[in-house]
UniProtKB/TrEMBL annotation:
Pfam families: HTH_31 (PF13560), MLTR_LBD (PF17765). CDD domains: HTH_XRE. SMART domains: HTH_XRE. Residues 13-84 form the HTH cro/C1-type domain. InterPro entries: Cro/C1-type_HTH, Lambda_DNA-bd_dom_sf, MLTR_LBD. Signal peptide: none annotated. This is Helix-turn-helix domain-containing protein.
Amino acid sequence: MSTPFASQELGSFLRAHRELLKPEDVGLVATARRRTPGLRREEVASLSGVGLAWYTWLEQGRVAASRQVLEAVARALRLDGTGVRHAMRLAGYHEPAGPAEEGPTGKLARAVQPVLDSWPTSPAVLLDRCFDLLGWNAPWSALWGAPEAVPADRRNLMWLMAADQRLRGVLHDWEPLAMNVFQHFRAQAGTALGAPRTSEVYRRLDQDAPELRHWWGCHSVAELTARTVTVEPAGLGPVRLSLSSFHPVDDPSALVLLFTPVGAEDRERMTALTERPLRAVPATTGEDGTQRAAG
C-alpha cells in the first residue's frame, strides 16, 4: 500500500499532467470559458469511467486506486510508459525495497563491488533506491573525485550532479544529464520519494544549490537514457564516454551506472587518468557548519 506522502505525490502528479492536456488532445471540443489550464477534473473522470467526487479525492490523496482504475486514469491522461510506472509505484504497485537498504557495507554492495572493479577504464557506481552511492570503482574516483571526500549526508548522485563543482567542471554540457538524473529518480523511486533520506537529500540541495530548486520541485519523469557525454579532466583533453545503466538482479530498486570510453584514444586517456595519484580534495565549510568537497 502507498503511504500518505506517496498518495499526495500521486495526486500532484496526476493534477500536473491533467493541467498539461488540452481538450483537443483527448478528442474533446475546446470552449472559450476555461478559467484554468488543461482538462477539468470532470473530463478526466468521465474519460476514466470513475465518479467526479472519487477522482477529486484521488488528486487530493484521500483515496487509494486499484491497478485497473489507475490504468484507466493513466490512459485518460495520455501518460507514457515511464509515467504509468511512476504512478503505479506511487500507488504502491512496485517492487519491494531490497537489500540495498543494508547500507554501503551491506550484502548488495559487497556482491556488486567486484563487478565495478572489473571495468579498469570505465567509471562505474552502484546506487540505492534513494540514489545514495553504495559502491564505486577507481576510474569513478579518478574522474569525479573520491566519494569518501564528500560528507556522507551529501554522498548522493542528485547532490553530486547539482552541487558538486568538480563534477560540473569536468562534465561538458552537464545540465541535460543532471536533469535526467532527477527525472529518473522520480520515475523509479516510488515511495522512496517520501523516505526520510530523500527529504534529507532535498534539504541539502536546498542549502547548496537553491538556484536549482525547481528541478526537485517539478513532477516530470523520464527514464535515464543511454547517451554519449564528454568529460575533460585537467591536463588530459576531452574524453567521450557512453553512459549505460542496469539494475542488479538481487535488487531491482538499485542501479548501476557505467561510463564506457567510446574509442581507443578515450580509453588511453582514461587509463592515464586512473593511473594518476588520487589528489585529495580539500573540504570547505558551508553556511550550516558542515564540511563538503570543494570540487
